[in-house]
Amino acid sequence: MYTFLFGVVLLVVGYFTYGKFVERVFGVKEERQTPAYANADGIDYVPMNTKKNSLIQLLNIAGVGPIFGPIMGALYGPVAFLWIVLGAIFAGAVHDYLTGMISIRNRGAHLPELAGKFLGKFMKHLVNAFAILLLLLVGTVFVSAPAGLLYNLMNGWVAMGIIVAAIFIYYILATLLPIDKIIGRFYPIFGLLLIISALGVGGGMLFTGAPIPELSFANLHPDNIPIFPLLFLTISCGALSGFHATQTPIISRTTQSEKQGRKIFYGMMIAEGVIAMIWAAAGMALFNGPVGLNELLAAGGPAMIVSEASVLMLGAVGGTLAILGVIILPITSGDTAFRSARMIIADYFKLPQVKILSRLWIALPLFAVSIALTFVDFNILWRYFSWANQSTAVIALFVAAMYLFIAKKNYWIALVPGTFMLMATTTYILNAQIGFRLPMEVSLIGASVISIFLVALFFFAALKARKENIPLEVTAPDWDDALAGAATAASVPKE
Questions:
Q1: Residue 459 has pLDDT above 90, yes or no
Q2: Which of 33, 163, 191, 381 is the most exposed place for a label (fewest CB within 10 A)?
Q3: In this structure, is residue 402 part of a structural domain?
Q4: What is this structure's pTM?
C-alpha cells in the first residue's frame, strides 16, 4: 500500500518539479502566436481553452494502454510501480511535452514531418509509413478491446459484429467532422467519467484495505520473469508511449498559448501514470497474486480483470459505470488515431482538408484496412502494437533531442530515455517470437552494438545540423500554399 501511495505522490511532485524544469529548458514564448490562430481553418486548427484541451489530450493518449498494459505488467509485481513512476516523469511526460511543443513551433506538424526536418528526408518517409502502420494497429486494437468489453457487459445479447460496426460509424464521424463538433464537445465529459472511474477503483482499494504488495529487494527481480526488455514494452502507455507523439499534434493545433503546454502535455501524461498505477495495483491486489491473475488473464484477458475489479470494488452499479469509463478510453483514442492518420497523409501529400470529400477519400481506405485487421488474433496485434509503439517513442525522443541540441539546450533530458528505450526495443525485436528469435545473450549484444552506432550517428548528424543552423520554428508565412489555400485569417478571439 505504501509503495503505491508513495508512487502516486511522486508522480504529482514530478509534475511540479521536473515538469517545470523541462518547461524551462524548452523555453516557452507566451507572446508567440500558436497554429490554432496562425493557421485557423475551422476543421483541425480551432482554438480551444486549456481545460478542454487537457481533457481531450488525456482521452487521446489514454487508450487501453494505461489499463491493459499495467494489468499485464502486474504479473511482474511491485517493480511495475517503479517503471510507471520513473517512466512517466522522466520519459513519457518529457516525450509528450517536447513533441507537443515542437509541433506548436512548426505549425502543428506531425511526427513524420518533424523527423524529416530534424533527422533527414529518409526518416520522414520511413516514419510516415511507420506512423500510419502504428495508427492502424491502434485503431484496430481500440475497436476490438471496447467491443469485447461491451459484449461482456451486455452478456452477449447484442451481436459482436453490430458493436464493431457501431464503433466504426462513430470513428468515421469523429475522423471527418471538425474537431470542435464531436471531440471538442463530448471528450471533456468522457474525460471526467474516466477520472471518476479510475478514482473509484483506487479509492475502493484504499477503503477496503486491499493487500497491495510493497516493493522490496526480494521481489525486485520476480522469479523466472525477465524484466528487461519485456516490462518496458508491456507497460507502455502508462509510462512512455510513442502513440502519444501521433496524438499531440491534434492538440498542438488547438492550443491557445505555449504557456498552456505543461498542463496539457506533461500534466496529462502524469494523470495517465496515476491511472496506470491504480490498475497495476488492482491487478496485484485483487486476484490472489500472480497465479490467480495469470489464470484470469488466460481465461478472458485484461478485459475480464477490468470487469472483475470494477464490480468487486464498486458494486454492480458503480462497477458498470467504471467499465463504461474504461470502454470510453479506447474508443476515444481510436477515433483520434484515425484522425491523426488522415492528417498525416494529408500533410505528406499536401492535400487541403476543408472539403469533406478530400477527407473522405483518405479516411475510407484506412477504415477498410482496419476492418480487415479485426480478423487477426488480438494477442498478435497487441505484440506488434507494443513494439511499434515504443519504437515510435524512440524516434520522437531523438527528434526532441536533436531540436534541443541545435538550440544549444539540455538535450540529455530526451536523449537518455530515448537511448534506453532504443536498447529495450532493439533487444526485444531481436529476441521475440514476432522478431528474429535470437538467444537473449546474442540479442543484448546486438542491441548494444546497434544502439551505440545509432547514438554516434545522432551526434554526427546533430553537429552537422547545428552548423547548418536548421530553423527551429516555422511561422505562418511559411505555411505551404497547398495547405494554406483554405486557411482563414488568424482573427479568432481567445476564449
A1: yes
A2: 33
A3: no
A4: 0.87
